[in-house]
Amino acid sequence: MWICRSLPFLKFRTQVPKMNELTQGFNGLRVVSFESRRSQQMADLISRNGGRAISAPSMREIPLEENREALAFGDKLLRGDIDILILLTGVGTQILLDVLSSRYPRQTIIDALSKTILVARDAKSAEALKRLNLEPSFPVQEPNTWREVLSVLDQKAPVNGKTVAVQEYGISQKDLINDLSQRDARVVRVPVYRWGLPEDLEPLRQALQTIVKGEADVVLFTNRNQINNVIRLAQEEGIEKEFKQALSSMVVASVGPVSTEFLDEYGVPVDIEPELPKMEPLVQEGSAKSGGILEKKRGHAAARSLPESSSGAARLQFPKEEKHSPAQMNETLRNSIFMKACRREPTVRTPIWLMRQAGRYMKEYRDIRDRHGFLELCKDSDLAAEVTVYAVDRLGVDAAIIFSDILLILEPLGLELEYAKGDGPIIHNPVRSWNDFKKLKTTVIPHDSLSFVFDAIRKTRQSLPADIPLIGFAGAPFTLASYLIEGQGSRNYIHTKSLMYHEPDTWHAIMATLSNALIAYLNSQIEAGAQAVQLFDSWVGCLSPEDYKKFVLPHVKWIIKHIREGVPVIHFGTQTGALLELMQQAGGDVIGVDWRVELDEAWRRLGPEVGIMGNLDPVSLFADPEEIYARAKRILEQAAGRPGHIFNLGHGVLPNTPVGHVKALVDAVKELSAR
Q: How far is CA 253 from CA 81, 227, 285, 304, 320, in A?
C-alpha cells in the first residue's frame, strides 16, 4: 500500500540538545520554577542552561502524625500477608520505614521486606531500597507512571488473588488502585505523608509577584499539587487574575501530561512539555525552545526590549533581522482558495485536490517506478518532489500533497518494513505484546532517518506555483498501530483488537508513543514548508463508536491539539459514518468523509464549526465523463456553496483509472462550482 501523503523527519519531544551541546540555552531569560525538595537542583539546572533562575519552593511533604494505616500494613507485612509492595516515591519509602521502625526492630522489617515482591516505581524508590541492602524485584520502564507499574506486574507478577500494598504519596492513587482491584487484587493502601504549603511562604510570594509584574520570561511547573498550591496562594493574595494574565505573555512549561491537564483546566495553555516527565528534559527542552516561543508570543519588538534584571545582567538579544521559516506563508498562499476553504471563508469556487493524485494511474509515474523501487522513490527527495509537482501541473488541482507513505515512520522505531511486490507492505517483526513493545526504539529517532522527506518538502515548495499550498501528512495512530500489530493488511484486525482488549495498557503505550511522535513529525513537516497537514485514519472504520471513544479519541485529540497554531488540520477516515461526531470531538479544521455517507448529511451531523472534504467514490472515475460530471454536480449541490467544502475523492485514485477521467473531474468541479 502506498499513499500520497508525507512523513517529514520525526523528532520526538525529548530530542533536544544535550547540556554540553548548548551554546546559549536560555540565553539570559528569567526562569521561575516551582519545586519542593529539589528547588536548588532545579536552580542549578536552569543556570547551567543559560537561564537566570528564580526558584520558589511551593510544596512540602508532611508525614502523617498518627499513621494507623501504615502500622496496620506493618502488622500484615510481618505476618507474611503482603505478597507485593509497590513503592511510588523515594521519600515515601523512607518515611514508611521510619513509621514502621517506631514499632518494630529495623532488621525485622528488612527481613520481612526481603520475602516480598518489591516494585520500585522510579530510581529514587529503588535507591531508598538499596540503602536497606534490598533490590527491586524487577525494573519499571520509563516514564515510570502507574501504567508502567501495572504493565510490569502483568508481565512478571500477575496480581490476581494477591495482596498488594501501595505506598501512596500526597493523595490517593485512585487509577492505580482501581486497576489493581479490577485485576482481582486485594489492595492495601499505605498513605505515608500529605502535601502542604512550604513553611516559609516568602520565596513563593516573591515568585508570584515577579510573574505578575512581568519580570519573568519562562515559568516551569513540575507537579500538579505544586500548581494547586501556587494558585491557592495567588487567590489568598488577591492576584489570581493578574497571575493568570501575566502567564499568557510568558513561556509556560509543564513536566508532563498530568500537570498539563491541570493547567489547561485552569485556563493556562502549555507551550512546552517534554516526552519524558522529568526535571532534566523539562529544563533542556525549555532552554532550547523558549527564545523562539517568547519572540512569537510577545512580538519581535517587545521581545527585543526585555527589561534588565536588578543584577544588571544582559537582556535577551534577538536577531535584528526577522527570520521567516518556510512554513510562514506569503499572502498569495494564505489567500489561495484551498487555504481559505480550510478556514471556512468564502471562495470564488470550490477547491479540489485528490488523494493519491500522484500514482500508478499515470504513465509517467509508472515509468519512474520501472526504474526505482517504491522505497527508493520515497527516499529520493528529487524524485518525490518531481512526481508531486508533476501531478499538480498535469491535473490542475488546487493543492499538492507530498509524495511519501504513512509507514515510513515505523522503520526508525525498529520495525522491519518491506514492500513486497503484489502483497503490499509487510512488517516482519510485528508488536503483539508488552515485551514486543519494549523492543521498539521509542526514545529518539535520529534527524537523518527521515530527512529525505524534509528535503522533498523543501524542494517541492520551491517548485510549486506561488498559489498552490503543499499538504503534509501522517497516518493516524490507530492505523499505524494496526499495521505494526497486524504486520500487514487485515480484514478483521484480530491481533489489533485482541491486544486492545486484553492488554489495554500496552495498547495505550503504543498509541501514546505514536501520538507524541506524530505531533513532532507533523510540526516538522510544517517547519519544512507544508501549509496544511492531514491525518489519514484509513482503518479506523473497523471500530465501534464505544471502542473509538475509549481507545482512539484521546490520542487523536492530543495530536491535533498540539499541531502548530494557525495551520489547518484535515482529519480523514474511511468507513467512518458511525464515528463522525467522535472524529469532530477529536479535532480538525476539516473532516474528510468517504462515499459511504451523503455529504450533506455528514455536514449536518458535524455542524457549522468545521469544514468538510469529499466525497466522490474513486470507482466513479471509471465511468464515462458525462456520469462523472453528474456525480460531481450532485456532491456540489449537497454542499450548496457553503464555505468550507474541499472537493476530493472518498479515498485515493485507484490504479488503472483513466487519466483523462481524472482531469475531467477536476475541470467539472471548476466549472460547476464557479460563483
A: 44, 12, 9, 21, 27
> Containing domain of residue 432, as a range?
331-673
Element (H, E) at 588: none
Find the catalytic residue in 186, 189, 369, 394: 369
Q: In the predicted model, is pLDDT for residue 316 greater than 60?
A: no
- Does the structure show a pLDDT above 90 at 554? yes
Distance CA 87, CA 83 (A): 13
Catalytic residue among 205, 343, 360, 458: 360
193 catalytic? Reply is: no
Mark 627-637 as b/e (b = at least 16 C-beta within 10 Å): ebbebbeebbe
Highest-scoring range by mean pLDDT, 50-64, 111-125, 296-310: 111-125
CATH number at residue 246: 3.40.50.10090
Do 518 and 428 share a structural domain?
A: yes
State how far the alpha carbon of 415 is from the alpha carbons of 13, 48, 432, in Å: 20, 37, 13
Boundary of a domain, candidates 147, 162, 196: 196
The pLDDT tens digits of the residues spanning 149-197 come to 998 999 999 999 999 999 987 666 777 888 898 899 999 989 887 767 7
Whether 369 is a known active-site residue: answer yes
Question: Is-contact 423 488, C-beta < 8 A?
Answer: yes
Q: Which one from 169, 365, 483, 493 is the annotated catalytic residue?
A: 483
573 and 473, same domain (yes or no): yes
Task: Return the C-alpha cell found at 587.
Answer: 479535532
Q: Identify the active-site residue in 13, 30, 349, 356.
A: 356
User: Domain ends where: 196, 212, 247?
Assistant: 196
For the chain, the domain total comes to: 3
Active site residue 483: yes
What's the pLDDT tens digit per position in 88-104? Answer: 888 889 889 988 998 99
Catalytic residue among 405, 505, 589, 594: 405
Would residue 170 count as lying in a domain? yes
pLDDT in tens, 375-385: 889 999 889 99
Residue 79 has pLDDT above 70, yes or no: yes
Instruction: Read off the pLDDT band of 441 (50, 70, 90).
Output: confident
Q: 23 falls in which pLDDT band (50, 70, 90)?
A: very low
Is residue 325 included in any domain, yes or no? no
